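Please produce the structure of this protein holding phosphoenolpyruvate.
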Amino acid sequence: MRVKRIKLREIFATNSKKTLEIELETEKVRVRSSVPLGTSKGKFEALYLSTSEAASKFVFIKNKFLSQNFNSQEEVDDFLHSLDRTENFSEIGANLALAISSAFLKAFAAENHQEVFEFLSKEKAKMPRPICNIVGFKGSGDVEEYLLLPVHQTSFRENMEKIMQAYLKVAELLKIRDPSFSFTKDLESAWFTRLSLIEILKILTKVSNEFLLKIGLDFAASHMWDGKQYYSYSMNNYIFSTQDQLNFVISLARKFPIFYIEDPFNQEDFVSFSVANKQLSPKLICGDDLLATNVKRLKDAIDLKAISSAIVKPNQIGTISDTIKFVKLAKENKIFTIMSHRSAETDDNLICHLAVGLGCDYIKVGTSGERVSKINELLRIEEILNK
Ligand code: PEP
Ligand code: MG
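Below is the modeled complex.
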């Protein structure tokens, strides 16, 4: 495939900050691809440059893409790694790398007259189950996400219908129990409330029982960790040692219908993850900041039996090929894979195609506002798969 034109553009993400979009024109097709932004980012994620820094790097590498012939995604991504030999894309930025890498993926698919998920793999393609952020405190330094997920899936549409009704029911119950509740939402369109963690869990228990769903929690615990000894919950006034945190996580998981637990400990504490994983199996203990979509960190987590599921965020690692390797390694080791949006998204729905085409078990998305764009794309994909 030959590139006729490659252009970088600054666009806005859903948190009103600038992000990158690449427009790529080959002899046959024209595609666009943009990258999301994280708020509670992990320490081990590949490096994002500011959009202006990325733009100045792009000036130097742009022409290199015009003089090459690319035959596969691996060639494109190897080329990106040859332009930036650092482990975390600190030279050209993981945002620029992923915008280019994902634009090529779309171009390969389009030149083949295929949807991206079909191009990735028609054989492996399957609809992921939704994990949806219902009550949220993004960037707060407390449990960041209270999620709902199904246990079984007849169809994605059916599960989404249940979760949407549950999301609205939660708001009704919040209105009754929290006098200050005014349908305010956080960055991911999850409800914001002043109720305590336990009160929220009681509401979610009621709703999950009614709609036959389970509860998930993203502790994002690295952001509660003081770097030495304690986890402090900014809104619930708990201060826990590592042992207290472990006991707390285990007791919550046994008391409430919680099936999914993401980042319950600091991103360097593989050992506590392992203890929780052993004690709470078969519930899903998931690494997000812990793994940062990084194959090396996933290998360590597998060796230590630290997790049973892994968040997949392409922008944590910077290329499509690295994302594919991560999913492959997880699958080979029977680790459930959860493709995930970021707290600031764009109108780009590529993660839906990646989730389906790579055969991920789950996809983590939001349930209202601009977030429905991902859900609607998945409904369309399900229709194509059912044909
Ligand atoms: C998360 O932590 O799972 C998340 C989606 O948030 P962010 O994009 O801010 O890392
Ligand atoms: Mg997370």
